[in-house]
Design brief:
The protein is of the alpha/beta class and 519 residues long. The strands form six sheets. Strands 2-1-11-10-12-13-14-15-16 form a nine-stranded mixed sheet, with helices on both faces. A five-stranded parallel sheet has the order 4-3-5-6-7, with helices on both faces. Strands 17, 18, 19, 20 and 21 form a five-stranded antiparallel sheet that branches. The longest helix has 17 residues. Bound molecules: 5'-O-[(S)-[(2-aminobenzoyl)oxy](hydroxy)phosphoryl]adenosine (3UK). 5'-O-[(S)-[(2-aminobenzoyl)oxy](hydroxy)phosphoryl]adenosine binds next to α8, β14, β20 and β21.
Length: 519
């Protein structure tokens, strides 16, 4: 298929929102959330009001708007509203801690923060010190929420319902998404207006075969690149319906959505598929009898989970690898061509290569470093020259993953080339967990590595050296786990904690994490 071409003046909100009105799809349902259904016409008006409201707060083209929102109708409203005026929404993880948010506000220099009221407590202590923030717009909980902040509902009602898109080009900066690295703070991956449509066509349309009659549900939230494509741009590309759930995805909440909304496409991460399968009563009969295809990404899907899911739910899971930098899935299994235990083959429109340390291609059957090239690659990390130089090489992006290609062209994941862990599909830096542990007064030092659970999925395991080794006890181990849980995003805490007398180190004192990994 030929490469997409874009008109010189192009705004993503025009493609994903306004086009449906112009083409007669205004009365179709775009969104179903706990408050009910929103048609494309209603969503388009909300987007216009949101754009006008943001403009009214002084937001101009190219300025960032930090968006910390639970899933629901207001997410696409604010996301497209900001982009439509040429501003740059920056959706962020809703599971982080005050210190993380202080950094994101500082780094992005957003002057407007759009925040779910329920998450306000995580910001209460840092807003005073956030020197760039001028306006906080609260979403939900009108009348009950704290402070003198504006409410999105009121702003939308007061704003004008029509709005002409800003004269952006396909190459304008459209949004950022933060991605964590092994050291230092997360980096803002800078994405352009054309990238959303590129992923919607190359993966959503051509791999998933998404249709206007599809009803999609993504357990991965919209602030992840994965969830953003899954539940916002892919359905909105064709005029399909997206179901949003503000609640955390658990087997029970997901099964309820499957049963009540009967989606045709479901997107999850391996940990969630495994936990749904762990309850033998969960099946196609108690889920969605319309389910046609499922998607897994974020970390490798163990073969057994895919096979068992197919037996129980009667729909295949397409495992595919994507990244925040590439925006969405660039290598994948596809309908009618599923090889469990592999990430499939490159998605048409993307090129991949496996190279050795000298940059030379490795032969099939040997593992190499995965590089990828394609039209949705972010242009750089914001304000991070060195990290950008390390990752982006001309049109190529270094993923940090190792892969093996077989003679038939299928790719099998072979681990990371750094110490980063994927836990429930989300990045965890061992350094960050180690620092949280050593902040406890009983801890001298700590090392964190990945350890596989019963479902063959990676979770953090900590090796801890105590200041007073004879204090080691199961109760202290539990206290340390809770200590980390209270300081970091909850998925980051060590599920296992072992006390040791010392940690393996190099002559220069660097922890040798590889010696602590099993196998
Ligand atoms: C790992 C996988 C094996 C891999 C993502 C779909 O996960 C996403 O983005 P992130 O930036 O992480 C990227 C890294 O995650 N990974 C993702 N998928 C797989 N490893 N098999 C997989 N199927 O290390 C990769 O480099 O959080 C996933 C769509 C958009 C995304 N941003």
């Amino acid at each position: 298929s030929p490469a997409l071409s874009f008109p010189r003046e192009y705004n993503a909100a025009g493609h994903f929102i306004d086009r449906h009105l112009a083409e007669g799809r205004g009365e179709r349902i775009a969104v179903i959330d706990p408050e009910g259904a929103v048609t494309y016409a209603e969503l388009a008006e909300r987007v216009n009001r949101a754009g006008n409201a943001l403009r009214g707060l002084g937001v101009r083209m190219e300025e960032r708007v930090l968006v910390c929102l639970l899933d629901g109708r207001d997410f696409p409203t604010v996301f497209f509203g900001a982009m439509k005026i040429g501003a740059v929404p920056v959706p962020v993880n809703t599971l982080l801690q005050p210190d993380d948010y202080a950094y994101l506000l500082e780094d992005s220099r957003a002057r407007v923060l759009v925040l779910s009221s329920l998450l306000y407590p995580k910001f209460a202590s840092i807003l005073e010190k956030a020197r760039f923030v001028e306006h906080v717009v609260l979403v939900g909980g009108e009348g009950t929420s704290p402070g003198r902040h504006a409410h999105l509902g009121e702003l939308l009602r007061a704003a004008a319902p029509t709005l002409a898109a800003a004269p952006t080009t396909p190459d304008d900066v459209a949004f950022w998404l933060y991605s964590s690295g092994s050291t230092g703070r997360p980096k803002g991956a800078v994405h352009l207006h054309s990238h959303l449509q590129q992923t919607a066509v190359l993966y959503g349309e051509r791999v998933l075969g998404i249709q206007p009659d599809d009803v999609v549900f993504s357990a991965a939230k919209s602030f992840f690149a994965y969830g953003l494509g899954n539940g916002i741009t892919f359905p909105f590309h064709v005029g399909a319906t997206a179901v949003y759930q503000p609640a955390r995805a658990t087997p029970d909440t997901v099964m309820r959505v499957l049963r009540e909304k009967r989606p045709t496409i479901f997107y999850g991460v391996p940990t969630l598929y495994a936990s749904i399968l762990a309850d033998p009563k969960n099946s196609r009969e108690t889920g969605s009898d319309r389910l046609r295809v499922c998607v897994s990404a974020g970390e490798a899907l163990p073969k057994e989970i895919g096979e068992t899911w197919f037996e129980r739910f009667g729909a295949h899971i397409l495992d595919g690898i994507g990244s925040t930098e590439m925006l969405h899935i660039f290598m994948s299994n596809r309908p009618g061509d599923v090889r469990y235990g592999t990430s499939g083959r490159p998605v048409a429109g993307y090129d991949v290569k496996l190279v050795d340390d000298a940059g030379e291609p490795v032969p099939d059957g040997e593992d190499g470093s995965l590089w990828v090239r394609g039209p949705s690659s972010c242009v750089s990390y914001w304000n991070q020259r060195q990290k950008s130089l390390d990752t982006f090489h001309g049109a190529w992006t270094r993923t940090g993953d190792r892969y093996v290609r077989d003679a038939e062209g299928y790719f099998t994941y072979a681990g990371r080339s750094d110490d980063m862990l994927k836990v429930s599909g989300i990045w965890v830096s061992p350094f960050e967990v180690e620092s949280a542990l050593t902040a406890h007064e009983a801890v001298l030092e700590a090392a964190v590595v990945g350890h596989t659970d019963e479902a063959k999925l990676i979770k953090p395991k900590a090796f801890v050296v105590l200041k007073r080794p004879d204090e080691a006890s199961p109760a202290l181990a539990d206290a340390l786990k809770d200590f980390v849980k209270g300081r970091l995003a909850p998925y980051k805490y060590p599920r296992w904690l072992e006390f040791v007398r010392e940690l393996p180190k190099t002559a220069t004192g660097k922890i040798q994490r590889f010696k602590l990994r099993e196998g």
